[in-house]
Amino acid sequence: MQDTYDSDKRKLLSCLCHGSIFFSTLLFSIGIPIVIQIISDDPVVKTNAKESINFHLNVWFWATLIGGTIGILSFLTLGIAGFLLFPVILLGFAIHWGLTIWALLHCFSNPDEPFGYPFIFRVF
Asked: Is 2 in a helix, a strand, or coil?
């Protein structure tokens, strides 16, 4: 017997998982896909939640690595490196938001297929 899942609920929960990254300045943003992963029984939503958790971890890792490096270089060069490397920070935000918007558009257009972020490390 094949289980059927509500398409609208699937879209909503999948988009909540991926869209929660917009709250990434708050530490509880990763809690949204974790809770959805625990309470949902839909395999597509669970896969989207797992992918979102991995994306959160990747964003935090790269932000810490790149931001810390730029911060140290700025301190050592009295802010000159921070000013010169500001486009790198902007590029990071553009990639971060661009991939998230791509995931949201995918969840709206193909709710029966989980989204996979390219070029990320998958811990879970």
From this structure: coil
